Amino acid sequence: MSKPEKVFAKGFIFKKNENAPEWVVGRLSLKKDEAIAFIQSQGNEWINLNIARGQQGNFYVELDTWKPTNQSNPSSNHRNNISQSNPQTNGNDLPF
Question: Can you give the residue ranges of every domain in the chain?
Answer without folding.
Answer: 12-63
